[in-house]
Amino acid sequence: MAAVDNKRQLKIKTGVVKRLSKELVMYEKEVTDGEAKLVQMKESGQDAYDIKKYTEVVAESRAMVPDCRNRLKKAVQDLDILLEDTSLSEAEEYKAAQEIRETVTV
Question: Model's pTM, two decimal places?
C-alpha cells in the first residue's frame, strides 16, 4: 500500500514541478516582452495613462517571478525527498520524476 502511495505522490510532485517550471518560464518571458513593449510605447509617444497601466501590468509579472521561483524550489525539494526512496527505482513514475528533476534547475 505504501508503494502505491509513493507512486501517486511521485506522479503528483512531478506534475507540480513540471507546471511550476513552465509557469516560471512564462512569467520571465512576459516580463521581457512587457518591458520591450513599454519601450516601444514610450518611443511612439502613446498616451501616458496607457503607459502607466502597462507599467503596472509588467510590475505584477515581475513580482510573480520570485514567488514562482520559491514555489518551484520548494516543489523540487519535495520531489528530491521522494526520489531518495530508491525502492521505486523501477517504476515508470520514478523514471519520469528523475527526467523532470534533471531538466529543472532552481
Answer: 0.85
Q: What sign for the dihedral angle of Cα 6, 11, 15, 17?
A: positive
Residue pair 85/6 in contact (Cβ under 8 Å)? The answer is yes
pLDDT of res. 21: 96
Q: Is 23 exposed, middle or buried (0-12, 13-18, 19+ CB in 10 A)?
A: middle
Question: Which residues are within 8 A (CB) of 57 and not within 5 positions of it... i.e. 6 or more apart?
Answer: 34
Chosen CATH of 2-103 out of 1.10.10.10, 3.90.79.10, 1.20.58.90, 2.40.10.340: 1.20.58.90
Intra-chain end-to-end CA distance of the chain, in Å: 32
| More confident position, 6 or 9 | 9
Share of the chain above pLDDT 70, in %: 97
